[in-house]
Every structure is written in structure tokens, then in C-alpha cells.
TrEMBL record:
Protein name as it appears in the record: RecF/RecN/SMC N-terminal domain-containing protein
Organism annotation: Euroglyphus maynei (Mayne's house dust mite)
InterPro entries in alphabetical order: P-loop_NTPase, RecF/RecN/SMC_N
RecF/RecN/SMC N-terminal domain sequence ranges: 2-93
Length: 112
């Protein structure tokens, strides 16, 4: 089981839809310049897997997960993770022995 694809849309520093593919089943590294969004990729993975403490994603409110806090016309943030399950690690009847599992989580801007 490994991450096959990660899609970020309006999440933190990713204002436009970004698809990250070609994950290796064994080892992956995230590289880039300072401020290019490397940590936000890890935050996205934690978020889509059900992160409950926002402080771990360097946020205080759910609105902080939305690109520019919803002030740039982006009012939702979503992360979709596609997991390769061809090894059958998730072979429970709930998953119908599917070779691919897709997990998606979304947050909408709350205007106060």
C-alpha cells in the first residue's frame, strides 16, 4: 500500500489545483526552495487522514487551511489522496477488495 496520487485544491499555499503523482512505493522525498510549500504537502496528508489537532498543521482555525484564508476568492480547500491497494492490505469487506482507495477531505470558508 502506498500513496499513488495527492490532489490539493485551495489548500494553504496551493491556490490552484495541484496533482502530485509518481510516488514511489518504497521511498519519497520532498525538495524545493524555502517557501515553496513542502511542509504544506505533509500538512495535506495529515489533514486528509483526519488530523484533529490543527496546531500540528500550524493552524489555529479551519479557515487557515484555505488559500489566503479565503480572501483571494478561494472559499474551499480540499485534499484527495489516492492509495494503491494492490497488495490487499485493506482487504476488508468494507473496501470490496478494491485495488485503489480514494480519501477526500474538504473544508469551506466560514464567514464570521
Amino acid at each position: 500500500m502506498f500513496i499513488k496520487k495527492l490532489v490539493l485544491d485551495g489548500f494553504k499555499s496551493y491556490g490552484k489545483r495541484v496533482e502530485i503523482t509518481d510516488f514511489d512505493p518504497s521511498f519519497n522525498a520532498i525538495t524545493g526552495f524555502n517557501g515553496s510549500g513542502k511542509s504544506n504537502i505533509l500538512d495535506a496528508i495529515c489533514f486528509v487522514l483526519g488530523l484533529s489537532k490543527l496546531e500540528l498543521a500550524r493552524c489555529h482555525t479551519l479557515n487557515d487551511l484555505i488559500y489566503k484564508n479565503g480572501h483571494a476568492g478561494v472559499t474551499t480547500a480540499s485534499v484527495t489522496m489516492e492509495i494503491d491497494n494492490t497488495d490487499g492490505k485493506f482487504s476488508h469487506s468494507d473496501y470490496c477488495n478494491s485495488p485503489v482507495i480514494v480519501v477526500r477531505r474538504e473544508v469551506c470558508h466560514v464567514f464570521l
